[in-house]
């Protein structure tokens, strides 16, 4: 079954499961706030991409940080996740589009009149096939204006034995049992476990950002059990 269909099956319980993850929402808010803080330079409302928006949790973090006048375009490949997102109450400037992140260059011209100020992608890149990740990062670079910023947030444990072990214990001891109890499509959370173990290391992702021309990288990690596992990087498209 295609990955988007697996996310469709998990969509109805996705928000419930994330609420049970200590620090999940706080990490989204922190990353969105850091992105918006770097973009504050004029009184004009910000124009932002939310790539891999899922059920809209990251979209809400961006709206909270940027304010209700911001334009936020959420993009996701899963119709089920987008149905959850569209069913929530949003300001007029928020809209959603079904597409893969790899299709961003084609979608962008239909959604925004020119490059956005910034782009946020939480838990996206590990779902992009490895041979398409460089092209996807380059597309994100190209759809952000010169001087704009990109924020990427995801789990990165490759090359860190302790982080990999903690990740496996949490997935098999907490996440998967909860998914079974709450009927949240355990298959997608087994995929989550595998995809994180195979995801780029922070060094590999940093190199992709370098190749795309994104500079001034700033890395941070979460607190609590996610320390050393969940990482956020902010990078700038040069003027």
TrEMBL record:
It comes from the Bacteria. Gene3D superfamilies: Vaccinia Virus protein VP39. Coiled coil: none annotated. The keyword Methyltransferase applies. InterPro entries: Methyltransf_25, SAM-dependent_MTases_sf. Keywords: Methyltransferase, Transferase. GO terms for molecular function: methyltransferase activity. GO terms for biological process: methylation. Residues 50-148 form the Methyltransferase domain. PANTHER family: TRANS-ACONITATE 2-METHYLTRANSFERASE, TRANS-ACONITATE 2-METHYLTRANSFERASE-RELATED. This is Methyltransferase domain-containing protein.
